[in-house]
Amino acid sequence: MLGLVSLAGCATRAPQPVPPLPPPAPVVEQPAPPRTERWISVRKGARTLELYEGATVIKTYPVVLGTQPVGAKLFEGDRRTPEGEYHIVKKYYHPYWSRFMLLDYPTPANREIYTWSRSMGVLPARGGGTPGIGGAVGIHGAEDESLNQRGIDWTLGCISLFNRDVDELYELVPAGVRVVISP
């Protein structure tokens, strides 16, 4: 019976106050890690296009260029591939070259060089005037891949890859990607 009394005694005790819970720790928003930029480097002298993720090369492709690959593009029809920093502004399927990624050539820097070249008489005369600055420069595949295979520069100033390579690159980069073209 003592056992019952002991149990009964437990039930008759006054409830003890429960200490309040400490306030929850403040939620500190952690900033998202910086997004690593995906960008393209074209090295004209090496005939390569490298796809970077930050400072890391994730893909390298062989390329061919305009038929006059040395020097920066100055005017329409000079058959040179431009040099400088550009961005892919539009992507689309192309009936001859598989895929086409249009660059934002000419940039304000290209226009400045063109204007200076024109004022200095460096541009050739055509039909009583001078040629325009040009445009429609991009990265694309090839209608005749044997030219790319033999390393023959055949474009009017664009960057050409094998079709399988441009198809892959097309899927790896969105419009807006930075493209740096160096000598």
Walk me through the topology:
Layout: H1 2-11, E1 38-43, E2 48-53, E3 56-62, E4 84-94, E5 98-103, H2 108-119, E6 138-140, H3 145-149, E7 159-160, H4 163-172, E8 178-182
Can you characterise this structure?
The chain has 183 residues and is of the alpha+beta class. It has a domain at 63-174: Beta Barrel (L,D-transpeptidase catalytic domain-like). Helices cover 20% and strands 25% of the residues. The chain is built from four helices and eight strands, in the order H-E-E-E-E-E-H-E-H-E-H-E. It has an eight-stranded mixed sheet, with helices on one face. The longest helix has 12 residues, at 108-119. It is elongated, with a radius of gyration of 32 Å. The model is unreliable at 1-12 (pLDDT under 50).
The name of the CATH topology of the domain at 63-174 is L,D-transpeptidase catalytic domain-like
Order of helices and strands: HEEEEEHEHEHE
CATH structural architecture of the domain at 63-174: Beta Barrel
Computed structural class: alpha+beta
> Strands of the biggest beta sheet: in what spatial order?
3-2-1-8-4-5-6-7
Poorly predicted spans: 1-12
